[in-house]
Specification:
519 residues; alpha/beta; two-stranded antiparallel ribbon; 15 helices; 18 strands; 34% helix
Length: 519
Amino acid sequence: MKFRSVLLGAGAVLQPGFGAAYAAEKPTVPAETAKAPAADEGPAIPVEDAQPKKRSIPLNGKTLAYTVTPGNLIIRDDLGNPIASMFYTAYTVDRPAGALQRPVTFLFNGGPGSASMFLHMGSFGPLKLDMSKVEAARPGPNMLRPNPETMLDKTDLVFLDAITTGFSRPVGKAKPQDFWGVDQDIDAFARGIERYLSVNQRWQSPKFILGESYGTMRAGGLVYTLQERGIQMNGVLVISTVFSYSPAMDPGTDQIYVSYLPSYALVAAYHNKLAEQPADLAALADRAREFANGPYLVALQKGNDLSDADRRSMAEQLSTFTGLSPQFLLNNDLRVDPTRFRKELLRSERRTIGRLDARFKAIDVDAGGDKPEYDAASAAISGAFIAAINDYLFRDLGYKTDLAYRPSSGSMIKDSWDFTHRLPTGGRINVAATTMPDLSAAIRRNPHLKVIDLNGYYDLATPFGGAEYDLKRIMLDDTQKDRISYRYYPSGHMVYIDPASARQMKTDMDAFYDNALSN
């Protein structure tokens, strides 16, 4: 069914999937840090271990000194039994004795089942991988450099890896599948954050969470769960946002095509496929939104009642926004999913475009197919990120572990993720989860909570129109709507790899932190 591939290609690959299946690695920990298990206890239970290092970078004409600490947190169930070891890398700036004002931000990627490698190596830490060219990175070396857009001057940063990714593993009697689900994953992150606050005496610090991709869906549920456990957040930052899987998993709705249309227009403009090239991307996005949510939505809702003349007229109008031929649009019943769009837009040039970032191009062996053979963006940058995180942790920081760093949980998680979700009202979503009700409840109950939504125009994995559809239906009172703000950038899913976008994002995030901390 083509609807399942529209966003739920998203199902396990909102972030790229890498590596071997979970069973490929023997679940052990270093003998010197482990408690030997009984015969029926499962994997050995490591002790909590932090391995801090002092570092500094030049920043704005000064030197920013900081401590980087890779380590693990043992999280326990309600009975106190250890269930997982969660890996983190923390960046902290020394505070005067007794000072509590410095914020701490918890960051994570998504997947589901992806480590926080892309955010860690490419976004807001003190060091950054240079992926600024819209082309495949060379096999190596691709070295980290001081990051002029680091957020460490504004907030301490703690990058967390989901259980079964990075160096995070189940322990004791827990199984990998115990963490593979919307609610199970949220619970693990909530316990990990609570443990970090306790171990590092940060309960009184201002607190933020930042999620990317599926991590935004996690963030929506996590901020509410933390709040219910007495941990109030000052702010939530979401990048490349998807809060709901319902449109992707429901073949009875056309909303998915409406949400994607503005992204198609921006991507077509980038590749010079529109009859009239726009001078202003934001203005084009506005026109595409108006058309998508107006005439296009009405036409799709008419279904078989749409006349032949109106169908042809709509195909002509769609063509001006998508760069696709009217006949192709008619052949697809005016409904083109992102996979077909990626194959069709540059077909005459025998090229396909990327899913995570549509600026990237690829060459398929079969130019006549109906879908790309692979994601040009993921193939172009993933190898460099995997090499960077391993080199940084093992060589630069000298982190000691017998485990292999897992960029993702592998292919096993794809059909194993539990998308059911218990809502704040007590009801349960059993097919396709959404955490919008959670975020809405958190905003209503915490009048100081602020949210910022950050999106790339050229992202065909989580289109900005989908983020807007979710967030603008969050059912807030008129006095609460201004607690959510939106920003857009000429980049893809990993917005921060584009230098100009990264600079503007830094400015926008600085302002967001200042605003969230001012009340």
